[in-house]
Amino acid sequence: MFRTLSGRFLILTVLFVMLAEAFIFFPSIARFRLDYLNDRLERAQIASLALLADDMLDSDLEEELLLNAGVFNVVLRRDAARQLVLSSPMPGPIAETFDLRDPGALVLIVDAVERLLDPTPEIIRVIGAPSRDAGLLIETTMDTQRLREAMIDYGLRILALSLFISVITAGLLFLAVRQFLVKQIKSVVSNMQAYAKAPEDARRIIQPKARVTEIREAEDALQSLQSQLTQSLKQKERLAQLGGAVARVSHDLRNILTSAQLFTDRIEGSEDPLVRRMAPKLVGSITRAVSLCESTLAFGRAEEPTPMLTRFNLAELVDDVFEAERLAIGEDDVSLSADIPASLTMRGDPEQVHRMLSNLVRNARQAITGSGQGGEINVRARSNDTDWVIEVCDTGPGLPPKAREFLFQPFQGGARKGGSGLGLAIVAELVRGHGGELDLKRSDATGTLFVIRLPMGDL
C-alpha cells in the first residue's frame, strides 16, 4: 500500500497535518498556561475580597480560601500601599517571578515550553493586574506541579485531537485522490497494457476522457503516440509483406533467369547473323535481370499462396527438375539420378513441389561444385499408408555449422558463401503449406539427406 501513489499521499497528509498542529501546539500551550495563571490570580483576588469584607475570618477559613484559589498567599497593592491579604506557610523558597501584566508572545511560549519540559516542582511568584481595576496589582505565589500536570493533560488532549483530525483529513483526501486522480491514472496504465498486447489493433487506442487537466493532456499525447505507432506498424507490415513477396519471387525468378542465361550462351554460337547480333543484348538484359533479382533478396518475408492440389506423376516432375539442373552443371563432375517408381502419382501442387525439389537439388549441386570435388545427387520417393516420402540425398561436403544452426530461417546464413538462406526457408514453408514436414536427417562429410513427408489425407 505504501508504494502506491494514494498510500504515500495518505502518509504525507498525516505528516503535514501533524506538522501544522505542531506549529499550533506551542502557542496553544502557552495560551493555556497564561489562562491558568490568570485564573489563579482571579481566584486569589476573590478570596482576598472576601477577607477585606470581613476582617474577622478565622484561620481555617483563610486556609480554605487559599486552597480553593490554589495559591499560598495573596498580596494586593492599592494606591501606594502593599498589603498581604492572605498567607499560609511556604513549602520552599520562590524560584522565579512572572509578570503577566504585559507579556510578550515569544516570552510566553518559551516559559510554557520550559515549564512543560522541567519536571522539578518549584514555587513561583505571579504578578498581574486585578480585574475591574480593583487595585494596582495583585501578587500571589503557587507551586508548579499542578500547573505542569494541567499543561500535560491539555497537551495530550490537543495531540489526540490533532491526530484524529489528521487521520480523518488524510482518509478523506485518500478517498478523493483515489477517485479523482489514481483511478484515472490506473485507467491510462490499463489502456497502455492492453495496447501493448496488440498495438496493431486501432480499437485499443486510448480515448481521452479524464477531467483532470494534466491527465487529459497525458491521454491526448498518448492517443497521438499510439495512433502514429499503429499506422507505422501497419505500414511496416505491408512493406514487410511486399518485401518478402518480392524476395521470394526474385529468388525463384533468379533461378529461372539463370537457366535462360545458359540457353543464351548456346545461342551466341549460332551462325545466323541476326541471332549473333541480338544474342549479346539478350545476354546483357538477362544478366541485369539476374543482378536485380539478387539485390532484392535482402527484403522481408511473405506467406506462400495456398497450394492448388491436383494429382501428378512425380517421376516426370523430377525429370523436369533434372533437365534444368543439367544445363547449370555443364562440365562439372556432378551426376543426377532418381529412384522413383514410374507409376507413383501423388496429390499436391505440382508447381510448389517443383520449387521444393528445385531448391533442394540446386543447393546440393552448388555445395558439390563449391567443394571442387565431384559428387552425386539422388532423388528417391516411396509411399506408405499415410504419407508420400521424398528423399534428396547428395555426396557433397555437408552443410556448414551456421547453416545447420539457423536451418530453415531466412537470411540467417546460407549453405554457400553469398547465399541468402532463403532456399530452405521457402522449401520448409511450401512443405508446411501441404501439411507436411521437412527434416534434415543427415549432414556430414559424406553428404546431406533431406526428407520431405507429405500426408495423403483423404484421397
From TrEMBL:
Task: Give an example GO cellular component term for this record.
Answer: membrane
The cross-references to Pfam families, in alphabetical order and at most eight, read: HATPase_c (PF02518), HisKA (PF00512)
Alphabetically, the GO molecular function entries are: phosphorelay sensor kinase activity
Q: What class of enzyme is it?
A: transferase
According to the lineage, what is the superkingdom?
Bacteria
The record lists the catalysed reaction(s) as: ATP + protein L-histidine = ADP + protein N-phospho-L-histidine
Alphabetized UniProt keyword annotations: Coiled coil, Kinase, Membrane, Phosphoprotein, Transferase, Transmembrane, Transmembrane helix
UniProt protein name:
histidine kinase
Write down the species. Roseivivax lentus
